[in-house]
Amino acid sequence: MSDEREVHRGGAELEIPADPSEVWQAIATGSGSSAWFFPTDIEPGVGGAVRLHRGPFAPDASAVVTAWDPPHRLAYTEPGEAPAPTVATEFLVEAREQGTCVVRVVSGIHADGDEWDHFAEEAGAGWRMSLLLLRAYVAHFAGLPAAPVDLTVPVAAPSSARAEVTTRLTAALGLTGLTEGDPFRTAPTAPPLAGTVEHVGPYFLLLRGHEPAPALFAISSFPMDGISLSVNVTGRVYGSGAEAHAGPELRRWTDWLGSQDLTH
């Protein structure tokens, strides 16, 4: 599956407290991938079909497995005909000492023109957030049933206001001043959630909840088209009651975000 266009690369890596076989289950199986990433259908082996269900953040995508080397390497390619780019994604998993491993993701965007460098950079930023989700999932919820709570809300602010929007969102949640490892409880006016802060960054929060249900919530401000912003929530509820909890949680987050003015 060759593509002679220029390749623009973005990527990320993270050390994860698990062995490669545990990470492989999370990245190379449908149930594992769906529990922290997009709901995904994966047919094992080179040539296998991949279907990424990206709603509500982006259209669904089809890909083909181009490398399958359990538990160390998985790659797939989403074909695109010019001017649409072909996108190649590769996961590399390397064992380290004391039961940990390093996971590296590389995205290659096959397209001509310097403007695609920005998209490669954004892909790398997106993967850095996704790997933090993967780490938290593998460390705390691996193998549990999962149900999604995913939504995106446009914000009437330019992409240059991304940090300010995230600051206002953090304040509205009642989480100002918290850092990684701190216990938290959201403000009374926000969707109820209590647990531990997994990550705080200028554009991204990752919260691990234990009330009202075991859950991960990744909350970010993200450029939609290089010009305007959206606030995205990637949530996963875990355990035997995941499906029953996910529906009410989606309604709560949708209603709350829709009521927020994050531009002032």
Automatic annotation (TrEMBL):
Q: Which organism is it from?
A: Prauserella cavernicola
Superkingdom, according to UniProt?
Bacteria
Q: What InterPro entries does the record tag this protein with?
A: ASHA1/2-like_C, START-like_dom_sf
Its recorded name reads SRPBCC domain-containing protein
Similarity annotation: Belongs to the AHA1 family.
Q: Which residues cross the membrane?
A: none
Name of one Pfam family that matches: AHSA1
> Which intervals hold domain Activator of Hsp90 ATPase homologue 1/2-like C-terminal?
18-138
